[in-house]
Amino acid sequence: MSGRRWALVAPFVLTAATGCFATRGDVAILQNDVQSLRSESARADSLHRAELDRVIRTLGSMRDTLGVVNTRFGRWQGDVRSDMRVIGEQLIAIQELTGQSQRRLQELRADLERRGQGASVTPAMPGAGAPGGGGSSAGAPAAGSPPLSTTAPAGAAAAADPNMPGPNEMLQIALDQLRRGSGGAARTALRDLLTNYADADVAPDAQYYLAESWATDGHEAEADAAYVQVYTRYPRSPRAPTALYKHGMILRNGGRNAEARAAFDRVVKDYPRSDAAVLAREQLSAR
């Protein structure tokens, strides 16, 4: 190649050679940048994995904790149910003992009532009338008149018929009939008591046992109506909370759950310290 021609080609060759070297440098820089990005990404992935592992461990710990809490809660519920069952059994035992005491007390009251009705006043003393004591005192009963009773009648019927048993004796007769399984005879005596001695202190007991006699004979509707009469007519009677609770149980057994719950709520609200309130709370917690 001539000198002149080489002079013309040389700048192009140098330029091409220079351009080739610049591209390789850029590639190296790009390779370094890519490597740096890969390293950063690897570090970020490592951090993310570590964070994810930490979250998984935390969730696992929380799951284990919740499992322990659920187990303890289940045991607590079982203990509560067991305690409530024991309390219910104790209440039943107490009620049985109380019932025996009340039965004995009722028998004593009836016996005293019979004795009182059989007693009479002291015979008339001779007065200061004619000589020889032939005259009678002004306050003495006339000859042939019936003896005066030492006890005041408990009601209008007792005043009309002094031979009618008193309210305690009538209640005792009814209870004896109930124990013998004679619900009809017991109801007759209880109705007579409520009719003739409506204001007697044993009237709430008579109304309650009237409901019990219906329940014992399997007449649920009549028993429920009689229980309602107990707590509506005698709301301050010790029989009222039990009657209201049994009304709620009849409603629950009949599928009237909302009304039953209202009855149990009323037991707890109106009679919070009664034995029936304990049983009512158990029914409310079971729903």
Reconstruct the topology from this structure.
Elements: H1 3-118, H2 156-160, H3 167-179, H4 183-196, H5 203-216, H6 220-233, H7 239-253, H8 257-270, H9 275-285
Helix pairs in contact: 1-3, 3-4, 3-5, 4-5, 5-6, 6-7, 7-8, 8-9
Would you write up a description of this structure?
The protein is mainly α and 287 residues long. The protein has a domain at 9-116. The protein is 75% helix and 0% strand. It is built from nine helices and no strands. Helix 8 (257-270) packs antiparallel against helix 9 (275-285). Residues 120-154 have low confidence and may be disordered.
Instruction: Summarize the main sheet.
Output: none
Which stretches are poorly predicted, pLDDT < 50 over at least 5 residues?
A: 120-154
Secondary structure: number of strands: 0
- Oligomerization state: single chain
**Coarse morphology:** rod-shaped
Structural class based on helices, strands and sheet pairing: mainly alpha
Reading the helices and strands in chain order gives HHHHHHHHH
The radius of gyration over CA amounts to 49 Å
> Beta-strand level of the residues, as a percent range?
under 5%
Q: Roughly what percent helix? A: over 70%
End-to-end distance: 111 Å
* Overall average residue pLDDT: 75
Total DSSP helices: 9
